[in-house]
Amino acid sequence: MMSNEHANPDRSAAKRRCMPSLGILGVALAFGAFTVNVAASDPAISGLRTGDGELHIAHDPLVMQHRAEAFVANMMSGGPPPDGIPSIDDPRFVPAAEADMDDGDKVIGLAWKGEVRAYPQHILVLHEIVNDEISGENIAVTYCPLTATAQAFETGTTTLGVSGRLVNSNLVMYDRDTGSIWPQIIATAVDGELRGDSLDEIDVVWTTWGQWQSLHPDTEVLSSRTGFARNYTRDPYGDYNPASGYYARSQIMFPVMHKDGHLPAKHMVAGARTTEHAAFFDLEALARDGLQETEHFIGVFNRALGIARIYRSEGNGDFEWRKGEVLQRDTGETFAPDALPLAAVTPIEAFYFAWNAFYPDSEHP
Q: What is the pTM of this model?
């Protein structure tokens, strides 16, 4: 499924240029679409099932705070048709030395089964899904620019595709085994044969190239030689380095199922969920405090990557932040933020409006 290449630089040395603010129509046109914000005419997406392989699903489904029917009823076209935003199904990788990125550029970092890879945001923004293979196992690395969410999943012997639909502004994926449809953030099928099942998640980090490379100098990097005629120097939504366009404005582009004013819409939070509970942590507040707790979760800030680590907790206050480490009061032991003696939960960084739309009853500090 993947190949490596080492001969030429990964992309042009020209600094990526941000497209001017395009609005909904302009973004759709950038992807070759001519209809936008059209309500779904049929809750099921026909023609997507290919019978290609078998999808791996989680043993237990994740909690949802809306019914599946409600997600389907609120689903709409994002503009492009199914696969109009094409997944990368034969990814190539280059060494870190050949990746032409600034330290502040955003990447999705993956360290799994002995492999370390970085997937640049400037490539993912035009594809949203990379179907990759590590140690003989299929995985999908996914990114939704509208909700600022990067998530990865084990996919068995099949792959994921972009359905062309959105719910709560979030990418809706489909699997090429059954054609079931999966909003990315909840990682749970809301329609199709696998409705109610959840995907098995793999931890990834939403960080900067400088931070990722400093910790993983031997990382491979997704090449811009994707096989598609795309201009990876332009992001149709704006830019992250520095933040501009859609990423910096408070406005959102599509309706959502729930909203409130607890935090600004584009404020970054780190969310987590289990089979029963969901929570979020304000990333700025977590960075300030180092550690925060809710009734069922504990969040710890990892300064090296600028990310949250989240664990299951009973909220008993047994841990506290001490000079970049976590102290367990009853034993006197200290732990690194990514090594607490608790069950880790997959953290998901997201714009607040998106997490809140999917999980309006989330716990928070």
A: 0.90
